[in-house]
Each structure stands twice: as structure tokens, then as C-alpha cells.
Specification:
single chain, 120 residues, alpha/beta, Ribosomal Protein L15, Chain: K, domain 2, 5-stranded parallel sheet, 42% helix, 22% strand, globular
């Protein structure tokens, strides 16, 4: 039987760090993101930029428990946090004045997960 869930060592380490941060910082948002990343590849989220632009607020970061793709446009500066990005998505986010962080990087900046929204 094939294993389900992540087989990428970087992603496995990321999920383990998220679960640990959830316990240590009493931040359930990281546990929710880790649970979504533990799913099989075919069940993981892929979100396009137009959806991020639609659901982003003024002073909050958008967390994507999966991959960010470059379909659509970003019209305002947004902080986007995800497990992975397409190269063109990073260019479009930074071109609009926003920031693109991997989950590991953002976890160090915001261990409590405050002012964040999960978009799936």
C-alpha cells in the first residue's frame, strides 16, 4: 500500500515544526495548517492569486496550506504565506508591494499566528 501524506522531507519537517509551534505557543492555527498539509498530494490546496486578492483584508496575512499559483492579479500589497509558490506568483505578489513567505519563515516571525486568515 502506498503511503499517504507528504513524502517530501522538507514538507515533513515543516509540518512537524508547525505542530510543535501549535503546542508550545497555544496557537491552534498552526495545528489546522499542519493537518491540511498532512493530506495526500491530490487533496492539498492550490490557490490562485485572484482568490487571495478577493479574500485578503487590510492588516492580515493570508495562509495557504498548499501551493500558490499565478492565475489572476493582486491589486494591493498582501502578505502571503504558503508551503510553496510558483515563480510567477512570487513575482506578481512582490510586484504589487506584498511579501511571499514560506510557512517556516513566517512561523519564526509570528509564532502565535495572530492577524492571519487561512484561505482554502
Amino acid at each position: 500500500m502506498k503511503p499517504t501524506g507528504p513524502t517530501n522531507p522538507r514538507l515533513i519537517r515543516m509540518v512537524n515544526r508547525l505542530e510543535r509551534a501549535s503546542r508550545l505557543n497555544n496557537a491552534p492555527i498552526w495545528r489546522i495548517v499542519a493537518e491540511r498539509l498532512r493530506k495526500p498530494t491530490r487533496s492539498r490546496v492550490e490557490v490562485n492569486l485572484w482568490k487571495i486578492d478577493k479574500y485578503s483584508g487590510e492588516s492580515e496575512a493570508i495562509i495557504i496550506p498548499g501551493k500558490v499559483l499565478a492565475e489572476g492579479e493582486i491589486t494591493r500589497p498582501v502578505v502571503v504565506v504558503a508551503a510553496s509558490f510558483s515563480a510567477s506568483a512570487i513575482k506578481k505578489i512582490e510586484g504589487a508591494g506584498g511579501k511571499a513567505y514560506l510557512l517556516d519563515e513566517y512561523l519564526e516571525k509570528n509564532p502565535k499566528g495572530s492577524n492571519t486568515r487561512i484561505v482554502v
